[in-house]
C-alpha cells in the first residue's frame, strides 16, 4: 500500500490530512520535526512527502534541499501559509514537485497527491543540445559552448523542456504543467521568472517571447 509522509507540526492539520488520506486508501506516517522528516524520507519506506515549510529544527526548504542533494527523487508537495511568489519560487527551485497554500481544500490536496504519484520517476541517459547549448541529463551538467554553467534543478528542467522542443512555441500553461507539475494559474508568473533566470545564464538570444502564445527556443 502507498505510504505518505506528513511532515507537519500543527497536530490539527496533520490529523485532518491523515484521516482523509487513510479514507482514500493510503497509509500515513506523521512527524512534526524537520530532522525526523528528512530521516523518514530517506528511509525508503514512504512514497510521497507532504512537507510543511515551518517545521522546527530544519524548515521545509532545508529538508527538501538536503533530500534532493542526496539524490532522492521522492515526490514532495510543500504545504505552507506563505503565498508570495518568492516563497513559491524558493520551494519549487529547491526541488518540490508541487506547492499547496494553506488553507486548502482536502479534495484539491488529494487530487495533487494522486497526480504526483502517477508521475514516473525518470532518470536521463542522454545528452541533448541545440546550437551551442547542451545538457548532460544523466550528470545534470549544462554547457554553453565550452563553458559549463550552473543551473538550479528547476532551471535545468526548464532548459531540458525547451531543448526537447526546440523551434516549437511552448505556452506558459504547458511549461507550468510539464516542468512544475502544476495546473495553470493565470495569476502566477513563476514561468516568466524562471525564463528570465535561464536567459541570464544561457544568453538572451536563445529564448524568444512569442506575444500572446508563450516562448520558443531558437
Protein described:
This protein has 218 residues and is an alpha/beta fold. It folds into 2 domains: 116 residues, Response regulator (Rossmann fold, 3-Layer(aba) Sandwich); 91 residues, Orthogonal Bundle (Arc Repressor Mutant, subunit A). It is built from 8 helices and 12 strands. The strands form 3 sheets. A 5-stranded parallel beta sheet has the order 2-1-3-4-5, with helices on both faces. Strand 4, helix 4 and strand 5 form a beta-alpha-beta unit. Helix 2 runs parallel beside helix 3, helix 6 packs across helix 7 and helix 6 crosses helix 8.
How many strands in all? 12
CATH topology heading of the largest domain? Rossmann fold
When the domains are counted, the total is: 2
Oligomeric state of shown chains = single chain
Sheet with most strands: strand arrangement: 2-1-3-4-5
Strand fraction equals: 15-25%
CATH second-level architecture of the largest domain: 3-Layer(aba) Sandwich
**CATH evolutionary superfamily of the largest domain:** Response regulator
Radius of gyration (CA) equals 18 Å
Specify the number of helices. Answer: 8
How helical, in percent, are the residues? 40-55%
Shape: elongated
CATH class membership of the largest domain: Alpha Beta
* Secondary-structure element pattern, one letter each: EHEHEHEHEHEEEEHEHHEE
**Structural class assignment:** alpha/beta
Residue-averaged pLDDT, rounded? 85
For the largest beta-sheet, the strand count, sense and barrel status come to:
5 strands, parallel
Query: Spans of 5+ residues with little confidence (pLDDT < 50)?
Result: none
Q: What is the rounded distance between the termini?
A: 46 Å
InterPro entries: CheY-like_superfamily, OmpR/PhoB-type_DNA-bd, Sig_transdc_resp-reg_receiver, WalR-like, WH-like_DNA-bd_sf
Pfam family, one: Response_reg
Domain OmpR/PhoB-type: 123-218
Protein name: DNA-binding response regulator, OmpR family, contains REC and winged-helix (WHTH) domain
Amino acid at each position: 500500500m502507498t505510504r505518505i509522509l506528513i511532515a507537519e507540526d500543527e497536530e490539527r492539520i496533520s490529523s485532518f490530512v491523515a484521516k482523509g488520506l487513510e479514507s482514500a486508501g493510503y497509509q500515513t506516517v506523521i512527524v512534526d520535526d524537520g530532522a525526523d522528516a528528512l530521516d523518514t524520507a530517506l528511509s525508503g519506506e514512504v512514497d510521497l512527502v507532504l512537507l510543511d515549510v515551518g517545521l522546527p529544527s530544519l524548515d521545509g526548504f532545508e529538508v527538501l534541499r538536503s533530500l534532493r542533494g542526496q539524490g532522492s527523487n521522492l515526490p514532495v508537495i510543500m504545504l505552507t501559509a506563505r503565498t508570495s511568489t518568492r516563497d513559491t519560487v524558493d520551494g519549487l527551485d529547491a526541488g518540490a514537485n508541487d506547492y499547496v497554500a494553506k488553507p486548502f481544500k482536502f479534495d484539491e490536496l488529494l487530487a495533487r497527491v494522486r497526480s504526483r504519484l502517477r508521475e514516473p520517476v525518470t532518470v536521463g541517459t542522454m545528452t541533448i543540445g541545440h546550437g551551442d547549448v547542451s545538457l548532460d541529463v544523466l550528470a545534470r551538467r549544462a554547457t554553453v559552448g565550452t563553458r559549463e554553467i550552473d543551473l538550479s534543478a528547476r532551471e535545468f528542467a526548464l532548459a531540458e523542456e525547451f531543448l526537447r522542443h526546440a523551434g516549437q512555441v511552448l505556452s506558459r500553461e504547458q511549461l507550468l504543467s510539464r516542468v512544475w507539475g502544476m495546473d495553470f494559474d493565470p495569476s502566477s508568473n513563476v514561468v516568466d521568472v524562471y525564463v528570465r533566470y535561464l536567459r541570464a545564464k544561457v544568453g538572451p538570444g536563445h529564448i524568444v517571447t512569442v506575444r500572446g502564445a508563450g516562448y520558443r527556443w531558437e
